[in-house]
Amino acid sequence: MVNKIEQDHQRFRQIVRGKIRKDLRKFLSRDELIGREGKRAVSIPVHDIDIPTFRYGDNSSGVGMGEGGDGEGQPSQGSGETPGGEEEGKHILEVEVELDELADILAQELELPRIEPRGKKQLTTIKDKYSGIRPVGPSSLRHFKRSYREALKRQLATGEYDPQDPVIVPIRRDMRYRSWNEVKAPDSNAVIVYMMDVSGSMGDQQKKLVRMTAFWIDTWLRRNYDGIESRYVVHDVRAAEVDKKTFFSLREDGGTRISSAFSLCKGLLEESYPPHEWNVYLFHFSDGDNSSEADNRQCVSLLKDHLLPGCNMFGYCQVASAYGSGHFINVLHDAFPEAANAAADRELVTARVGESNDIYDALRTFFKQGR
């Protein structure tokens, strides 16, 4: 019975995974998924999956005995202005999916290679690995299959087992429990620094695109690293480090100086994240506006001399805005020609997100190198 239930559960999970993969581009663009985010899982609405239920026959054809009271008989028509609909509704099922599982689905559909941490940026930690079976332990670690196997062996040996009535009743001495050993395992540290332009040209729609893109970036990187730290930097003409909530809600009305964010990021890395100990991921979100050509040159200098040499990847994501010039991505392509070459192995990767459907392609662009 336990095995059958487990098989049914696995089959159900496969159906859910298939539905998510089929509509992955749509799921990537759903802002409400972020609001449903828990500690390590999200609830996803999946259409057209029926839950098994009991269905009873139609008992409406019989006629009751005795006189009918008030209110019985044919139902009256609704008196409201809008009558009830007659079409069948769609089945919507809320399915809780682990973020790690969601990241695996993302990787399979986008054909993303697993990230290989760079060189010395790996630490060794002690972890518990369940690798054995023992006759004592807490109920939470009880191994049902092995316990029933021991009970079956005992009943066969004592002649208690009846093939015509195959009832297996484990007793205390039959119980088996999972055991663990402490093992040394590589634990890769990574830091993600998110930078965003919050000047007047970055409106609510642009913030929404940034938030969804950052959510999936974070989901994929956390699937590849055990230890992740996230830092958030906002800027207009000046840059400041903020918390996550402020990062996605703050809006200023000033101009834009991108080098202010790059300089602050440089200071954060030098102070807390030496490149020989950390895998470093930097992402900058902007509509492509910058204050001057002089600041563009300053940004290129900071990238070449300080940011790119010590990071796994620098991702520049340009979101479409009716008020932004969209010029900065061209500055990067001129200074770093390989950034525009999809086949090149490069630290600087650029992507454009004009609408939510573009997030799918942006994620593939950022991570298809396996950095």
Explain the overall architecture.
By secondary structure, the chain is of the alpha/beta class. The protein folds into three domains: 2-51 and 92-110, no CATH class; 124-183, no CATH class; 189-367, von Willebrand factor, type A domain (Rossmann fold), CATH 3.40.50. Helix content is 35%, strand content 22%. The chain contains eleven helices and nine strands. The chain has helices spanning 2-22, 24-28, 32-35, 99-110, 144-158, 204-224, 244-249, 258-272, 293-307, 328-335, 359-367; strands at 41-47, 92-98, 122-134, 177-197, 227-235, 239-242, 279-286, 313-319, 348-353. Strands 3, 4, 5, 6, 7, 8 and 9 form a seven-stranded mixed β-sheet that branches. The protein has a two-stranded antiparallel ribbon with strand order 1-2. α4 (99-110) crosses α6 and α8 (258-272) runs parallel beside α9.
Write the layout of secondary structure elements.
Blueprint lengths: L1 H21 L1 H5 L3 H4 L5 E7 L44 E7 H12 L11 E13 L9 H15 L18 E21 L6 H21 L2 E9 L3 E4 L1 H6 L8 H15 L6 E8 L6 H15 L5 E7 L8 H8 L12 E6 L5 H9 L4
Parallel strand pairs: 4-5, 4-7, 7-8, 8-9
Antiparallel strand pairs: 1-2, 3-4, 5-6
